[in-house]
Amino acid sequence: MSERIKEEMLDEDAVVLTISNKIATIQLNNPAARNALSTGVMASIQEILDRLHDSKDAHVVILEAVGPVFCSGHNLKEIVGIDREAAMLALFEQCSNMMQSIVNLPKPVIAKVNGMATAAGTQLVASCDLAFASSTSKFATPGVNLGLFCSTPMVALSRNVSPKHAMEMLLGGEFADAEQAARIGLINHAVAEEDLDRTVQDFATRIASKSPLTVRTGKAAFYNQLTMPLDDAYAYTSRVMSENMQTLDAQEGINAFLEKRDPKWRGE
Questions:
Q1: What is the DSSP letter of 9?
Q2: Residue 244 burial (CB < 10 Å; 0-12/13-18/19+)?
Q3: Cβ burial, residue 87 (10 Å; 0-12/13-18/19+)
Q4: Whole-angstrom Cα distance, residue 19 to residue 26?
Q5: CB–CB of 27/66 below 8 Å?
Q6: 3-state secondary structure of 19
Q7: Would you say 77 and 94 are in contact if contact means Cβ atoms under 8 Å apart?
Q8: Which parts form a coiled-coil structure per UniProt (predicted)?
Q9: Along the chain (268 residues), what's the average pLDDT of each consecutive run of 10 residues?
Q10: Torsion angle, CA of 126/127/130/134, rounded to 10 degrees?
Q11: Whole-model pTM?
Q12: Cα 140 to chain center, whole Å?
């Protein structure tokens, strides 16, 4: 399955969706514009996420980009042309909704970064469930250098790394290389550029082979329990596990393990 989401402001192929073997790939495909998040690009990504939400064709999503810049963040030329506060607020709300849609998507989203990610581009990486980057990739929240603090990127960043590491990036406005990004938890692993495709594809294939119901349940529970007090988190996850245990997939998985065979998932 392959389809293209048109982007009016830039190029008709600015965002491309492909689905194969239960793996959906969202590709930012406008390197000339540094894969910036214009309102049109964000609308295209949002449309794709909405389509994938209940799709049975995809169990896992890869987010990648063409060119040396994974994503440069918001389109600054578009931003400086907005002269009304209400319109500016609408733009940032659109971006915030898109980022939350990634977190709330009932399928894991893997960022595959091969290049620079800045400002809302770093926010995009931090919003994904997993992130792998080539060793030459770099990450920054440089808004402070322009007099515009990266406040909305800060939300996703501060939920990935420790407060002091987040503040170092936000206040310093300098690039963190892939090794540092992995060390502070912004990405999972930094790998050689020639190994990036295989690394991400292998992990995505592994996820796609699991019960989609179990993965969906687990992702939602993970984010829900993060902000709960310890006792509430245990009470909540105990209920989740109890309900999960009643599903056909859990029963199939346990039986398959005991019978030393591969499980046959039904998604129920």
A1: S
A2: middle
A3: exposed
A4: 9
A5: yes
A6: strand
A7: no
A8: none
A9: 40 86 97 96 97 97 98 91 88 97 98 98 98 98 96 97 98 98 98 98 97 97 97 98 96 95 91
A10: -40
A11: 0.94
A12: 17
Close Cβ partners of 26 (under 8 Å, ≥ 6 residues apart): 15, 16, 17, 45, 48, 61, 62, 63, 64
Tell which residue, 84, 155, 87, 93, has the closest CA to residue 119: 155
d(CA 113, CA 214): 27
- What is d(CA 197, CA 266) in angstroms, rounded to the nearest whole number? 29
**Rounded to whole angstroms, how far apart are CA atoms 23 and 103?**
17
* Domain 2-208 matches domain 212-258 at the CATH topology level: no
Q: Would you kindly state where each structural domain of the chain is located, as residue ranges?
A: 2-208, 212-258
What's the helix, strand, coil split of the chain in %, to 5?
Answer: 50, 20, 30
Kind and range of the H or E element at 26?
A: strand 23-28
Q: Which CATH superfamily is domain 2-208 in?
A: 2-enoyl-CoA Hydratase; Chain A, domain 1 (3.90.226.10)
pLDDT of residue 8: 36
CB 49 within 8 A of CB 101: yes
CATH topology of domain 212-258: Lyase 2-enoyl-coa Hydratase; Chain  A, domain 2 (1.10.12)
Phi/psi for 28 (5° steps) reads -80, 120
